[in-house]
TrEMBL record:
<dbReference type="GO" id="GO:0005524">
    <property type="term" value="F:ATP binding"/>
</dbReference>
<dbReference type="GO" id="GO:0051082">
    <property type="term" value="F:unfolded protein binding"/>
</dbReference>
<dbReference type="GO" id="GO:0016887">
    <property type="term" value="F:ATP hydrolysis activity"/>
</dbReference>
<feature type="binding site">
    <location>
        <position position="72"/>
    </location>
    <ligand>
        <name>ATP</name>
    </ligand>
</feature>
<keyword id="KW-0067">ATP-binding</keyword>
<keyword id="KW-0143">Chaperone</keyword>
<dbReference type="InterPro" id="IPR036890">
    <property type="entry name" value="HATPase_C_sf"/>
</dbReference>
<feature type="binding site">
    <location>
        <position position="30"/>
    </location>
    <ligand>
        <name>ATP</name>
    </ligand>
</feature>
<feature type="binding site">
    <location>
        <position position="160"/>
    </location>
    <ligand>
        <name>ATP</name>
    </ligand>
</feature>
<protein>
    <submittedName>
        <fullName>Molecular chaperone HtpG</fullName>
    </submittedName>
</protein>
<dbReference type="InterPro" id="IPR020575">
    <property type="entry name" value="Hsp90_N"/>
</dbReference>
<dbReference type="InterPro" id="IPR020568">
    <property type="entry name" value="Ribosomal_Su5_D2-typ_SF"/>
</dbReference>
<dbReference type="GO" id="GO:0140662">
    <property type="term" value="F:ATP-dependent protein folding chaperone"/>
</dbReference>
<feature type="binding site">
    <location>
        <position position="34"/>
    </location>
    <ligand>
        <name>ATP</name>
    </ligand>
</feature>
<dbReference type="InterPro" id="IPR001404">
    <property type="entry name" value="Hsp90_fam"/>
</dbReference>
<comment type="similarity">
    <text>Belongs to the heat shock protein 90 family.</text>
</comment>
<keyword id="KW-0547">Nucleotide-binding</keyword>
Length: 616
């Protein structure tokens, strides 16, 4: 025998309260929404079918005993409609014959009224239909029982009153201030008048005449009013405001540019659906890169999730995301053309987001090129300004490399950009995409060393003995000496690892850690590349180098070269191996010892100490 499903209402209410809605507060939203929809339905009637129609009005009336009555002058319900729509879970009057949500209505699922069972055991609905039938009283209980009575005295005018008496423990949800806050939060933009009436207080209007983006004053007045609105929303004054519009989704609103990079206020966007607040923290409305914008928008077409607390992530939402992204990007480009000062202020705060975008987007790349200051060996300037005097855009890949080489590179006629921060190298390497004439090169320190000025041949020949000692000392570190003259004179020696030497060094380090099989393979490779060694470039312009080259080729010179080598490693922020650290310690102590040569204090003869020249 065929049977019909039976629904356990208590189970459904539990399901809604524990798994669908985040808080009982949504009861106020659902009541407000039903009242607004009923007014919308009444407005849609032809004037002759409803000669008594008056402006839509919803009253949240709180009585002295805590009972809440919500009155609307909407379309009302007939007795058969009460049976169909109020008493059937999932039945709604807000879908068309094919089951599609009807555009003008807020509700669509046919479950909203059940949310009242989270705060009350009984829902009473008193309703008089615009069609002229007698008034009806419906009383629904959380356990699934309901009663329908035709009672023409239940309500005198067309419309509906919903009566809720707080369940034990829920009275706070009906407190006058709470009702004010909830209704105002959800419904302040609704285009019906919503008021609160409470004992011993004047009637309070809870809706505003217009949304912030509907202010139609002169553009500057509007901008200031919007910025004030953004200040209230974010807790600090937004940097700017962007008008947003996606007709396909019936979306209008504004985006506030956050005043700090860390973000203030709620992380997501404030979204209204048909002027009713859907979420103060909606995700996925703008592309990820636009994290510097917090939106306040109203949409008539995007779909809510069943809980009405977020947006349903469908194709339309992804098209909206794309369109809003394009509008935010246009705002940025417009700033770059018309308000460079505002662009500079924006970039100071949000450079990271813009750089992240420039890695994928040519327009943003142009913006970075023209507007974002980079650290360069010629001072802080935009890449475009840097290129004016440097045909090749050469960059250091790390901040350490930049710090170590900027001054030397600049003096050698190779100006340098610091590309050591997030996204920098990708951005620089992408620049030829926007202008083919741009040449971008990663600095090869080896190439830089080759550009440093050589000494006259006869002078270099005179220094052969000194260089031989240096070569002999440095062999232990896999490094070779070179003598050049370069600026700044304050740098006595420069440790230079060319790209090839760098790669070879990586192999050597792997070799030290590899097991037998791998070490055979790697060592074969290392032998082929053996000619690329790091160089210690000694600066002939530095007086210390000149003095060292003139001194005797004894132990002091050897320690001096070791110390120069260690100092150059440290100055360039190069990693130190065990052998390097040992050399640094050894040379440092030996040179100190020599500096303080003489009899030790305390009456000793010092005979036990080896003279410094003979130290190992
Ligand atoms: N104030 C009201 N005036 C007239 N009809 C109402 C009123 N409140 C509820 N109804 C009727 O009851 C039906 C069910 O309401 P309910 O709030 O459960 O769902 P809904 O609004 O249709 O959809 P949703 O679950 O998305 O809110 C509505 O479709 C409507 O026909």
């Amino acid at each position: 025998m065929e049977q019909r499903f039976r629904v356990d209402l208590r189970g459904v209410v539990d399901l809604l309260s524990q798994h669908l809605y985040s808080s009982p507060r949504v009861y106020a939203r659902e009541l407000l929404q039903n009242a607004a929809d009923a007014i919308t339905a009444r407005r849609a009637l032809a004037p002759e079918a409803d000669p008594e129609a008056e402006p839509g009005r919803v009253v949240f009336e709180i009585e002295a005993d805590g009972t809440l009555r919500v009155h609307d002058n909407g379309v009302g319900l007939t007795e058969p409609e009460v049976h169909t729509f109020l008493a059937s879970v999932g039945r709604t009057s807000k879908r068309d014959e094919l089951g599609f949500a009807r555009q003008d209505f807020l509700g669509q699922f046919g479950i909203g009224l059940l949310s009242c069972f989270m705060v009350a055991d009984t829902i009473e609905v008193l309703t008089r239909s615009v069609t002229g039938t007698p008034a009806v009283r419906w009383t629904g209980h959380a356990d699934g029982r309901y009663l329908v009575e035709v009672d023409d005295d239940a309500r005198s005018s067309v419309g509906t009153t919903v009566v809720l008496r707080p369940r034990a423990g829920s009275a706070h949800w009906f407190a006058p201030d709470q009702v004010r806050d909830l209704v105002q939060a959800y419904g302040h933009l609704l285009d019906v008048e919503v008021v609160r009436q409470a004992p011993e207080t004047a009637e309070l209007r809870l809706t505003e005449p217009r949304a912030p983006w509907e202010i139609e004053d002169d553009p500057e007045v509007r901008r200031l009013a919007l910025l004030d609105h953004g200040t209230r929303l974010l807790g600090s004054r937004p940097m700017d405001v962007i008008d947003l519009r996606v007709p396909e989704a019936g979306l209008v609103g504004v985006g506030f540019v956050l005043p700090t990079a860390s973000g203030v206020g709620p992380a997501g966007h404030r979204v209204y659906l048909k002027r009713m607040l859907l979420s103060e923290n909606a995700a996925g409305l703008v592309p990820e890169w636009a994290f510097f914008v917090r939106c306040v928008v109203d949409t008539s077409v995007l779909r809510p999730t069943a809980s009405r607390e977020g947006l349903y992530d469908d194709d339309l939402l992804s098209r909206v995301r794309e369109s809003l992204g394009a509008q935010i990007r246009d705002w940025l480009l417009d700033l770059s053309v018309r308000h460079p000062d505002r662009l500079a202020a924006f970039l100071r705060v949000h450079h990271l987001g813009v750089k992240a975008l420039a890695v994928r987007d040519d327009e943003m790349l142009r913006l970075v090129d023209a507007g974002l200051p980079f650290e360069t060996s010629r001072g802080t300037m935009t890449l475009r300004a840097f290129r004016r005097n440097a045909p090749v855009l050469r960059y250091a890949e790390t901040v350490d490399e930049f710090r170590a080489l900027a001054a030397i590179a600049s003096a050698a006629g190779t100006p340098l950009v610091n590309a050591g921060y997030a996204y920098d190298t990708e951005i620089l390497e992408r620049l030829p995409r926007i202008d083919r004439s741009i040449t971008v090169r990663r600095l090869d320190p080896g190439e830089l060393a080759a550009r440093l000025e050589a000494l006259p041949a006869e002078l270099e020949a005179e220094l052969a003995g000194f260089l031989r000692v240096a070569r002999d000392v440095l062999v232990e570190f896999g490094c070779v000496p070179l003598i050049r003259q370069f600026e700044p004179v304050t740098v006595p020696a420069l440790y230079v690892m060319s790209r090839q030497a760098h790669d070879q060094d990586a192999v050597a380090r792997d070799l030290a850690q590899a097991d037998d099989l791998w070490s055979d393979v790697l060592s074969a490779f290392a032998e082929v590349e053996i000619e690329h060694r790091p160089e210690l470039v000694l600066n002939w312009r530095h007086p210390l180098i000149r003095r060292m080259s003139a001194g005797p080729p004894g132990a002091t010179l050897r320690h001096g070269i070791e110390a120069l080598y260690g100092q150059a490693l440290l100055a360039g922020h190069h990693p130190l191996r065990a052998v390097d650290t040992a050399a640094l310690n050894r040379s440092f102590l030996a040179l100190l010892d020599r500096a303080f040569a003489g009899p030790p204090a305390g009456g000793g003869t010092g005979a036990a100490d080896p003279p410094p020249e003979e130290m190992p």
